[in-house]
Amino acid sequence: MDKYFELNVDSVIDYVKSKIDFFSSDAEYKCNEIGDGNLNLVFRVFDSKNNKSLIVKQSLPYVRAAGEDWPLDIGRGEIESRILGIEYKLTDGLVPEIYIYDPIMCCMVMEDLSDYVIMRYGLIDGEIYPKFVDQISDFMVKTLLLTSDVVMEHKEKKESVKSFINPELCEITEDLVFTEPFNIGARNNIEESLVEFHKTHIVNDEKLSLETAKMKFDFMNNAQALLHGDLHTGSIFVNKDSTKVIDPEFAFYGPMAYDIGNVIANLIMNYLSAFYGMADGDKKDDFCRYMLSTIRDTVDVTKAKFLSVWDDVVTDTMAKKKGFKEFYVEDIFANTAGVCGCEMTRRTVGFAQVKDLNSIEDDSARYKAKTTNLLIAKELIINRTTAVTGQNYLDLLSKYCK
Amino acid sequence: MDKYFELNVDSVIDYVKSKIDFFSSDAEYKCNEIGDGNLNLVFRVFDSKNNKSLIVKQSLPYVRAAGEDWPLDIGRGEIESRILGIEYKLTDGLVPEIYIYDPIMCCMVMEDLSDYVIMRYGLIDGEIYPKFVDQISDFMVKTLLLTSDVVMEHKEKKESVKSFINPELCEITEDLVFTEPFNIGARNNIEESLVEFHKTHIVNDEKLSLETAKMKFDFMNNAQALLHGDLHTGSIFVNKDSTKVIDPEFAFYGPMAYDIGNVIANLIMNYLSAFYGMADGDKKDDFCRYMLSTIRDTVDVTKAKFLSVWDDVVTDTMAKKKGFKEFYVEDIFANTAGVCGCEMTRRTVGFAQVKDLNSIEDDSARYKAKTTNLLIAKELIINRTTAVTGQNYLDLLSKYCK
User: Fold this and answer.
1) In A2, A141, A224, B294, which residue has its Cα 20 to 30 A from A243's Cα atom?
2) Which DSSP helix (H) or strand (E) runs through B25?
3) What is the ipTM of this complex?
4) Do B165 and A161 lie within an 8 Å CB cutoff?
């Protein structure tokens, strides 16, 4: 196979046999195509006799729905597999393992996550994930702190910054997260009932615009650490025991707060979805209590790990100076609140929204959830330096959620 | 000439004739070798009949003083000529014009600046430069603002960031400016009489160390604009009419404050040199008055130009929000004071010092100049958010210069 061709459920089995020594010699091969096959072909290859499986993800050279008129860079999987490789090592397995990347066939052969679900949908179904806080905080502290100048040799870090500069995908974030939701028009997607509210409370709030502008420039200029870049609950696979972060295609060197704020924002929006959307009763009460503790602990445990890991990993002489650790971490969490507010805003009025809020069927409950979300978001952005503990977030939620 | 060879005063004339249509056909060619010839060969080729001249600067593949055992990247002139080309365009000629860069011979053929002097030495001789403030402020505002995300298309700016990542030379600054002077040892170069002062007032001041650490991380992570990176008075050629910035080998994307702070620091050190080192009399009084107004105006004129140019050049939607311009510029000038303090410190106790201070012959005057310099530097770093106008600098100088 020295030339690219599109795999199918038959040829992928031969492909796997020729590429990787993974299955037993007595394997009984089966294969399904999974995924929507629009940008990538995704196959699950499994041995039904010995219960082993893997995933083959092949990049398509065009958007299938649009045909060959919309070409795509076929090498994008190479970057994704490089980042997953880095994150796998740094986090001891909190992303899927990449067994092989094949640059000719543009294939990643990787760990099968069939026994996981996408966290957003699990949470919408009211599932709880007892290991999540510990694992996502590990993921963030390790991928972020260990790729920063606090820890990395500075010349090596600059080469890493250079190799992960990501203009096209950063532009999407700059526009969709930090610009369009705070203005009228563009690709915003605003429910009719929210149009006036958006204009009055978001677009016309000069203080909010100013503080968001500051967040945008921090996002564009602050090459602090290698971010995942799109760390919402749709990029996280979970089950009761394990967490796996996927889809790092937005990765670049940016402010640590961007990843942490995205996680917290998506937890908050799920909480609001439950608070306003679930039928009253024990199940709702239990789930809401679980989500509140998850929000609080994600902030507090992540922060505590930054502070406790710091002394073991710091290499920069000036970063060891008294007080710097506390300054640095406090600054991350103030900006985290700001990012959190931007993500909450854009997921309510921007181009790409979340099912958590949009799936609330009752119009008035959905209106209440979305407006509450926007008001909390606003306060997080404007008063971000005072939203730096888990309890600060819970106080805000209890202030607005009536 | 399809292969590199070292030029000499004879071959360079043929080289110039073959490469560039610059001199008249009746030219009477003369040539001098200028410069120390350690890293580069520098020739001035001139036509004594028509009074025209140019410079040929050829990179050597090794450090001549050390012999062939210390090899150098011969292509470094390519980067320098690229940056000078960008700066020439942006500033309408406030750097020497590059006529040709020849990648085979590793030669820049460029504008002759023989009728300029290096500003540091001119100032040490008590010369005044009436056009300097207007020209250096133009240089800074144009090279900085026009290469930032405020103005540039963001994807193009990221490609520019990528192409100017400069790990080796940034490391020199990180170590020599932001680390070693605030610690004991390393390559510091401290007069015997200052050893205790340095330890007590600099190294043992925890607040100073903490604030310097913040400045260091801003330098490393804040890819705000394309900096010159080494903008002291030794990198500036001047005469009564004109200013030309040279030697941009440290250029990279960093915080605008780094360039501005370097200029101001070197002006302040020259003022201290005059205040403590010049013989009392009218000449000293006039020159000190001139230096104080130059320091004040460099701050205030540069800031005023940032603010006045902004509305004409800004393209980013969020950067146009009310209050952002003032926030952005104020932030630059607070960090400028911090950089200024770091530069003043390292030029007094660090590896690379300045003649302004070291040439004061009287021991006690030199001690007074250097300790005053360190105390002002410290206050600039720690209280940088309150040193944002020219008058703030003059107040500090009058507080400490007794």
Assistant:
1) A224
2) none
3) 0.95
4) yes
